[in-house]
Design a protein that fits this description.
1 helix; Jelly Rolls; signal; Spore_coat_U/FanG; single chain; mainly beta; five-stranded antiparallel sheet; 253 residues; three-stranded antiparallel sheet
């Protein structure tokens, strides 16, 4: 009998089904002619008594057999055609507030010089020694702000007394005073606390009858201007040195 493959060449295809569950090859084929009766037969993957009979026939010189077996170890773990990996990125930015206040301590010494009073001997007695006009100062920093929610505050050390003459000597309290109240106005560009929006003009004022004031802000950076104005005092001023400390505080929350 001719071979089971009828062509002149038997081509064996090796197939790897990567990532796909696939039964491994285990083929057993028989063919032959039953003696005496001369009847051709074939059998594919027989089992049990049929397989035993065909094998006995082979031992007796009857028929032929074709087998093909393939085996390979399975994946070590369940195959994953798609892999997703999430990378958690993190870093820290420290809270910071900045205010450029010059290069040395002299920059923050605001000296009004001589606060003029009416000294002419031709002044009316009700005007003598009164302030000639308001005392004013302007402070501007082109770099100010905080990079987190923050509080902007202004505080006068002497409170509502303002600038105080600490060595006034004696004086008639009906006619003279030894303090100069003042007001403060600060302005910058920022946003309200916890607001996520475009910056807009912000301001903080401390009136002459206030010792301090504050406002909450979100992160901001801009120039800041601080205007100080001491209006003409209601009474005449005792001679001497008038002082106070105005404190600006930018504090990240």
């Amino acid at each position: 009998m001719k071979t089971l493959f009828r062509g002149a060449v038997a081509a064996v295809a090796l197939v790897s089904m990567s990532g796909v569950a696939h039964a491994q090859t285990n083929e057993r084929h028989y063919a032959g002619i039953i003696p005496i009766v001369n009847i051709p037969y074939t059998s594919t993957n027989p089992s049990g008594l049929a397989l035993l009979g065909l094998e006995v026939g082979l031992l007796a010189g009857v028929g032929t057999r074709y087998t093909a077996e393939a085996d390979a170890p399975s994946n070590t773990t369940t195959a994953t055609p798609t892999v997703t990996v999430a990378f958690n990125l993190s870093g820290t930015v420290t809270k910071d507030c900045s205010f450029y206040a010059g290069n040395n301590a002299n920059a923050t010494n605001i000296d009004f010089g001589v606060i003029g009073v009416r000294t002419g001997n031709n002044e009316n007695v009700n005007d003598a020694f009164d302030m000639v006009g308001p005392a004013e100062a302007e402070i501007e920093s082109l770099t100010a702000g905080c990079n987190f929610n923050n509080t902007v505050s202004l505080a006068k050390t002497n409170g509502i007394q303002g600038m105080v003459n600490t060595a006034p000597g004696g004086y008639d309290t009906n006619e003279f005073q030894a303090n100069i109240p003042y007001e403060v106005d600060a302005a910058w560009t920022g946003v309200a606390q916890n607001a996520v929006t475009t910056g807009s003009p912000q301001s903080l004022s401390v009136a002459t009858n206030q010792g301090s004031n504050s406002i909450g802000q979100g992160a901001w950076r801009s120039a800041m201007q601080i205007d100080i104005n001491a209006p003409v005092a209601p009474l005449a001023l005792v001679a001497g040195t008038y002082q106070d400390t105005l404190t600006l505080t930018l504090s990240a929350i």
